Amino acid sequence: MTKKTLITSGKGGVGKSTITVLLGFFLTILGKKVIILDLDFGISSVEEFLKELEPVFNLGDILTGACSVEAAVNSSRYKKLDFIAAAKNYTMNIQSSQLQQIIKSLEGYDFILLDSPAGLNLDECINDEIIDDALIVANPEKLCLTGARNVSRLLEERGILERRLIINKFNSKTWKKSNLESLDMVIDFVTARLIAIIPFMEKLEVVSHDFEGLVSYKKFYKALLNLANRYLGTDVKLLFK
Ligand SMILES: Nc1ncnc2c1ncn2[C@@H]1O[C@H](COP(=O)(O)OP(=O)(O)O)[C@@H](O)[C@H]1O
Ligand SMILES: [Mg+2]
């Protein structure tokens, strides 16, 4: 069975695409076959991280019927991690039935990660027939967490019961100073179980085209490996000190 996970957030720039691609990569380290579907129309973040060559076709070409789903699947520089690039020059809304059809053609994968645009832009086409669960990414700031709460509520209304929170760009120094009293409070507030706390990583740009190099950044590497393991249902600890 292929598991379909939406990666979303209330606010832009929180690290959705980064987390999507890194989670995909770490799942392949754990032996899984993964495809990322970039749903962020216009901004080709996933492609930037993963491409070897300019993709010939993208999601827009599938939607206009210019190519088959199979033809739009690109291999990445990482083994077992494929992707479909974001639509360019495609301005119409994607329909649930279209997305469902695309996902159906990708059943050979263990996981389909859907990288979404910020906010509720995709809400029309997302429901519990399309995805199994959602990972909501937020930075440890009040505004961001409020956005995450709004998205979590919307997903709940759409029947998505499995919603988990990833706190990204965590910095223990700023956390202590922030007005967010405790982690429990954050989880209650967002109404999504916490699955990972990913540290702020200064050198991300340096390793963004060579994830194998991440192994030198132990804390960050471990946090991502733990995220991938927890996502797979393995009982490993959160790591954020
Ligand atoms: N854990 C992290 N530490 C430091 N910078 C990060 C981290 N995660 C993401 N970023 C940076 O934040 C910016 C936005 O990330 P991106 O994944 O494009 O966000 P989104 O997809 O939510 O808009 C990028 O410059 C990215 O390198
Ligand atoms: Mg993005």
Explain this structure.
It contains ten helices and eight strands. The mean pLDDT is 91. It is of the alpha/beta class. The chain is globular. It has a single domain, classed as Rossmann fold (3-Layer(aba) Sandwich), CATH 3.40.50.300. Helix content is 36%, strand content 18%. The chain has an eight-stranded mixed beta sheet with strand order 3-4-2-5-1-6-7-8, with helices on both faces. Helix 1 packs across helix 10. The structure holds adenosine-5'-diphosphate and magnesium ion. The site of adenosine-5'-diphosphate has 16 residues, from helix 1 and strand 7. Magnesium ion binds next to helix 1.
Give me some keywords for this one:
binds adenosine-5'-diphosphate; 241 residues; Rossmann fold; binds magnesium ion; 36% helix; 8 strands; globular; 10 helices
Summarize this entry quickly.
The chain has 241 residues and is of the alpha/beta class. The chain has 10 helices and 8 strands.
Structural class estimated from helices and strands = alpha/beta
The N- and C-terminal alpha carbons lie at a distance of: 35 Å
Query: Into which percentage range does the β-strand content fall?
Result: 15-25%
The DSSP helix count reads 10
Total individual domains: 1
CATH domain class name: Alpha Beta
Helix content: 25-40%
CATH architecture field: 3-Layer(aba) Sandwich
Mean pLDDT, as a whole number?
Answer: 91
Main sheet: strand order: 3-4-2-5-1-6-7-8
- Number-wise, the strands total 8
Q: Which secondary structure elements does this structure contain, and how are they paired or packed?
A:
Elements: E1 3-8, H1 16-29, E2 34-38, H2 45-50, H3 59-64, H4 69-72, E3 74-75, E4 81-84, H5 96-104, E5 111-115, E6 133-138, H6 142-157, E7 163-170, H7 172-177, H8 183-190, E8 193-199, H9 204-207, H10 218-231
Parallel strand pairs: 1-5, 1-6, 2-4, 2-5, 6-7, 7-8
Antiparallel strand pairs: 3-4
Helix pairs in contact: 1-10
Magnesium ion is lined by residues 16-17, 40, 45, 115.
